[in-house]
UniProtKB/TrEMBL annotation:
The lineage of its organism: Bacteria, Pseudomonadati, Pseudomonadota, Alphaproteobacteria, Sphingomonadales. Belongs to the acyl-CoA dehydrogenase family. It comes from Sphingomonas psychrolutea. This is Acyl-CoA dehydrogenase. Its cofactor is FAD. Residues 232-379 form the Acyl-CoA dehydrogenase/oxidase C-terminal domain. Gene3D superfamilies: Acyl-CoA dehydrogenase/oxidase, N-terminal domain, Butyryl-CoA Dehydrogenase, subunit A, domain 2, Butyryl-CoA Dehydrogenase, subunit A, domain 3.
Amino acid sequence: MTISACALEIAGRVETFVRETIIPYETDTRRDHHGAPLDALVYEMRGHARAAGVLTPHILPDGSHLTQRETAVVLIKSGLSPLGPLACNTMAPDEGNMYLLGHVGSADLKARFLAPMIDGSARSAFFMTEPAEEGGAGSDPSMMKTTCRLDGNHWVIDGRKTFITGAQGAKVGIIMAKAEEGACMFLIELPDPAIRIDHVPNTIDSSMPGGHATLTIDNLRVPADQMLGVAGEGFKYAQIRLSPARLSHCMRWLGSCIRAHEIATDYANRRTAFGKTLIDHEGVGFMLAENMIDLKQCELMIDWCAGVLDTGSLGTVESSMAKVAVSEALMRIADRCVQVMGGTGVTDKTIVEQVFREVRAFRIYDGPTEVHKWSLAKKIKRDWKTKHGG
């Protein structure tokens, strides 16, 4: 399947918008206590994106989505600035939540919850991870302790969640909880007095508004018609969301690393040391050459995995492989960019140090590298036993 002319045109407009309109916002001081953009900044940028026709560009006016391969060329361009996905409304967790609602939500739920997310007027949060120190669900959602029980025409939810990206300031929430039937998902309006944010920690990353909150859900009553899908199918729905969401992270952060590489390349071609420009020193030139190789490999891995998802497959194996390969390669790229730039690379004079921090965090969220490798190793064992009759 080829990339359509429409998708390429959208990607071109997104790139122009991010480079000309959003990159100047990178020095804007409207940030919270841990450096994430405040909503006032987010919605101002989204106003510019709306005017430029690049708001939520991966979802077309008729409600249809670009293919995953087409989405990749657009999201990579949106990632050329850490602020780009926020401005264009292609950022996590919103992009993944929109994808899930688009595939599972009823017409009523789409009208009530999805529409304001697509038009950029509402941020959202996905409530799945739970405090490890309390034995809750992290990379293993089967450990979920948050419960839900039916009481008349409402479900009552109780539990604790942690690392809930964007919960502070979100207007839409998707909550995972455990019932007798199994895992369930619910759509809720935020804020809600039954959900108390206990703590928003300072973290190594700072690109996502609202941070990564720890919160308590105490006797939250949700109308039964706000259940997403049917009771007991929550883990199935989570996979519908998580496989493409992992890949979308790869797309966005590839865009950021492309930009970091551009900055480091410019620095190496302008800076002189020991009688010649840095690019002419083999140690520096080779690092940039290695970046070029890793960038292309990331692009190819993303395109391959996106192609699998476009066949209708859940692509859990492929997305795990892509998440590991791309996140580890991007870490190498970001690290080399810092190294090439020396002292300047660890300052906030450019976005290079932020990209380094963001990619380091990416190696953990949406499944740490080791969890994905463990899952892939289990598949290798299953396949061997099937082949050899073990």
